[in-house]
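Duplicate of #3305? Posting structure anyway:
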């Protein structure tokens, strides 16, 4: 696999999953509004995807070891992965009540993150379970913290 594809997809996918889930859970617990959650997902899918793509672009440039083509490939792959994976969380909002949609989105995110972690571990020739556990636990922590922040905002504002 091309290094630029690996960098872009792994970063964009991971960021898309964890950022979107954290935002969804935080907005749901803070507002209880389907429109707020949908708006948040679309904002992540567009604005944050561009932001992450530029971050990868500048990071790759700063290493001073990649060609211009490799840098731009990483940039584009990061944007596309973040945009696509963040956008994939929209569907549950149209199929289920908000609370159920959040649960489905979390399950979807953990499935994607776990599957990608498994593939990553296999490619690195390490045991998959510790890699999957590490990544899913970090995502779980982000979700719990975001839920707590949303609840606090709802309670005090």
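Output from current build:
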């Amino acid at each position: 696999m091309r290094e630029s594809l690996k960098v872009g997809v792994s970063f964009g996918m991971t960021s898309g999953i964890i950022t979107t889930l954290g935002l969804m859970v935080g907005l749901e617990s803070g507002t209880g509004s389907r429109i707020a959650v949908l708006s948040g997902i679309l904002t992540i899918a567009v604005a944050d995807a561009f932001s992450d793509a530029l971050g990868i672009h500048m990071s790759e440039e700063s290493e001073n070891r990649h060609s211009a083509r490799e840098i731009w490939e990483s940039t584009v792959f990061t944007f596309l992965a973040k945009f696509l994976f963040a956008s994939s969380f929209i569907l549950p909002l149209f199929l289920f009540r908000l609370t159920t949609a959040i649960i489905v989105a979390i399950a979807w995110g953990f499935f994607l993150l776990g599957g990608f972690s498994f593939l990553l571990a296999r490619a690195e020739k390490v045991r998959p379970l510790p890699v999957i556990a590490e990544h899913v636990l970090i995502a779980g922590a982000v979700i719990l913290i975001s839920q707590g922040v949303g609840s606090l905002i709802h309670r005090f504002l």
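Confirmed duplicate; merging threads. The chain has one domain: 3-156. The helical segments are 3-31, 34-63, 68-87, 91-95, 98-124, 128-156.
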